[in-house]
Amino acid sequence: MATAVSTVAGEDGHRMQDLSQMIPGPILLLGAPGVGKGTQAKELVKLWGIPQISTGDLLRANVKNGTELGKMANEIMQKGQLVPDTLVNEMVALRLTDPDVKRGFILDGFPRTLVQADWLDERLAKKSGAPAGIQPDSLANTPAGSLPVVAVSIQVDYTQLLRRITGRRNCPVCQTIYNIYLQPPKVDGICDVEGAALVQRSDDTEKCFEGRMLTYQSLTAPVVEHYRALSRFAEVNGDQSVADVAAGIVSSVERLRG
Ligand code: AMP
Question: What's this model's pTM, rounded to 2 decimal places?
């Protein structure tokens, strides 16, 4: 990556690099529901100081605020199906005009179809053509503007995913993610940080999970293959500690950035 860095000790004793001055560029986190894309995106936000853009979070905010998009999306989300490409693409396009994406951004849960992937590739493509970079009209002359997309796919097996999904609980205030089986809060049902009552996403049930996995296999797995076929792609084993998965992603991105 662009800048030389010093190392600092992480909370768990890992030697973590100070990556806040780096230019990570556009990063895609790919993988099935429950592999930990959201958790990892939050780790990378802390390390790199670039924003997480989660289409699931943006859609849930629309549902909560009762917008037209939210009303349309809610029923689809409850069935574990995908919101139409054009709506999601527009939402992402708007988010990419915010100034905080100048050093890069982490797309979490997008693209989820080949149509979305093609849209993104085109949107981020330099006028001069491949390799893809950030579209000049939204991010012209930014430090990340010349960097191509790097895609990282997180792998976790099906049984583990089911436990992760059905055990997942979120703090509605600080958005910290817990798991009642794997990473429980100190007090049952209460956020360690905020003291707020934890909530379960309404689509984190076993029934909905099955639907989301079917959707993933038919529509999103081809997106992983699309980026695998491009040269800037890595797979990381998601069945490790949060810190180890994050370290795997960071080293993959550094290697792919060359
Ligand atoms: P997530 O929080 O990423 O698991 O997303 C929750 C739900 O939001 C998904 O099951 C979809 O219904 C919807 N959603 C999120 N991202 C997308 C996307 N890129 N395309 C279509 N629907 C999406």
Answer: 0.83
